[in-house]
Amino acid sequence: MQRFTDLSEIDWIKHGIAKASPETLGTVSRLIPPIYPAYVKIFHPLYEDLTVEDMQLTWHEHAMRFSQPTSGEQQDLEATILSSSTMVYGGPTPDSQLIPLRWRALCSALRIPYAPTLSVWSFTRHFGGGSWPKRLIGPDEGTLAPIERDALISVLRRHTPAGPCFFHFWLLATEDMEDLVFRGTLDEAAAFPDDVPGVRLTPTHWFPEDRSWLVCSDYDLTFTLVGGSESLVQDLMDSQVLECVRVHPGTRIDSHADVPEPSG
Does residue 9 contact residue 181 with C-beta atoms inside 8 Å? Predict the structure, then answer.
C-alpha cells in the first residue's frame, strides 16, 4: 500500500459535492457527489449488554454514581463539567456480554419511525435527559466495525474492476491532523485503522480507480454512506450482515434530519 500527501486524487470529490446552500446543507450531497444512480446508508452496529440488569439506569447516572472523588480545584472543575454536560452513551467493558441490536428493532421498541433520516440523535432525543440506558451500547462514530467492514468489502468486490483503490482520510481521522491518501487493493481496506500507522478511523472516502462507487464514513457520523450503481446498492440492501436504508442526494443526515419543520 502506498501512502502520500498529494490530494489530487480526491479533487473530483471536493469539486463534485453540492455547493453549500440552505437546500443542500446537512444532506448526502455534501459528502458524496450527486452523480450516482443509487445511494444507501449503512448503520453502524448497536449492541445490548446483558450484564446490565438495571433497565432504568442511564449512562449519565452511572457516570455520576461511580465518578471518583477528588479534592480542591480539580474536584470543582470536574463538578462543573459533569453538571453542565450529559453522558449520552459509552462503550463495552471487558466483562460485557454483547448481543447485536438492529436499529429497526430499537425503532420498533421505542415506536420511532424507521426512515432514511434516522440517526443516533433520533434515539437520544427520545431518552429522557438525553442519556441512553446503560444496557445499550451506542454506535461508533466514523468507524465501521470489522464484521460490517468486511461484509461491505465482500459486496464491493463484486462491483469493482481490476485496479487500485484510493483511501482518503480527512485530517480529523489522522493522528498528525493532516489529510492522507493511500493507494492499494480493495482488500487492503481491511487494514484500516488497526494495521496502518497514523490513522484512527475507517477511511473518510474510498473508491476504485474508475470511481464507479464511493464510500464515505464521516468522522462524526454513526453511519456510512455509499453511492454507486443500482445493482451495488441492491446487493448492499440484501446483505444479511449490513443494516441499510436507501437514501438520495437530498436526504438530510444532520442531527435534526428527522425533526419536523416548525409550522407557520
Answer: yes
Mention every residue, 6+ apart, whose C-beta is less than 8 A from residue 40. Answer: 225, 226, 233, 236, 237, 244, 245, 246, 247
Greater confidence (251 vs 5) lies with: 251
With H, G, I as helix, E, B as strand and everything else as coil, classify residue 167.
Answer: strand
**Type of residue found at 199:** V
- Residue 196 near residue 1 (C-beta atoms within 8 A): yes
The rounded distance, in Å, linking the Cα atoms of 125 and 159 is 38
Evaluate if residue 260 carries a pLDDT over 80: no
Q: How confident is the model at residue 74 (pLDDT cuts 50, 70, 90)?
A: low
* Radius of gyration, CA atoms only, the chain: 20
Torsion sign, CA atoms 119, 124, 127, 132: positive
Q: What is the pLDDT of residues 10-38, one digit of tens each?
A: 999 999 999 999 999 999 999 999 999 99
